[in-house]
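Researcher: Final request for today, and then I'll write up notes for the group meeting. The sequence and the SMILES for fe (ii) ion follow.
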Amino acid sequence: MLTLIPAARQHMPFRQALMADPATMAYNAPWFPPDGTIPFPEKDWDAWLAQWTACEPERFCGYVATEDGTLVGEVCWHGYGEGMGVVIHADHRGRGYGAEALTLLAERAFSHPEITRLQNNFESDRAPALRMHRCAGFVETGKDADGYTLVQLTRENHRERQLRRVTQAMCQWEAGVPERIHHFIKVHGFARQIGQMEGLSADEMFVLEVAALTHDIGIKPAIAQTGSCPGPLQERLGPPEAASMLGALHIPQAVIDRVCFLIAHHHTTQGVDAPDWQILLEADFLVNAIENSMLPKTVQAYRDTVFRTAEGLHLLSLLVLL
Ligand SMILES: [Fe+2]
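Model: Predicted protein-fe (ii) ion complex:
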């Protein structure tokens, strides 16, 4: 897992070495012949730091580090995201660091409301660069005036990519238990349907969808500890696991906090005071009613006491003929 650290004087020797390394800078050779390397003498450091520090959201430059503090690359954006850069040191390539560095850069950029997209361009024959950007959710938008491939990551692209990563992590978490994988995939589908039809905002949808994917994360530790998984135990054991998983995926802390609240209350039907909580209860029930072959009177009672959204009630009426 990488972390992103805003540029500071202590990173300048790494920057100097990065730009002096021919293997790292080979891509840059067309502009800085013969080998793409760029001198970065110490006398230039102050001016560079003045240009690239404390200038968010217009510009940002930072360094990505492994868990032991080793710096592996540099990322930046400028012009409020209209341009950007990512360089992973050649010694650290081939390990997925580029896509993770782009994800970290996107999380930081999209924490600023002024930034709605990150855009990059490079020569059309640079397949590894294109693949790295696609892995981080970027999409190609055409060619620029010089014939370079243009790629961009919108806030929506980024969120969708993060949802795919949460889905992947949850499938891994539930490896070998297909019924639980089926369950959260179905709950997520219903939650997305209800949330969109009920007019949730993009921010609310993201929280709801992450919560729908992870809501039953506490079943596995509950079974491991006690051999069973009563609702209150799931609600207690789920949030720490979700916080750990979502933190490793670089999901924003405010989202993690709300998702953990929802996991801790997804069997609680009293005091429901927000659409994400309400919709999660309904989506979970739409799946449980069928998976558990509930009796009509049980479904009816839950419908009358818990269901509130028009779309949830509509879906329930189509699934269960009462
Ligand atoms: Fe569930």
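Model: The chain is about 55% helix and 15% strand. The radius of gyration is 24 Å.
Researcher: Thanks, that's everything.
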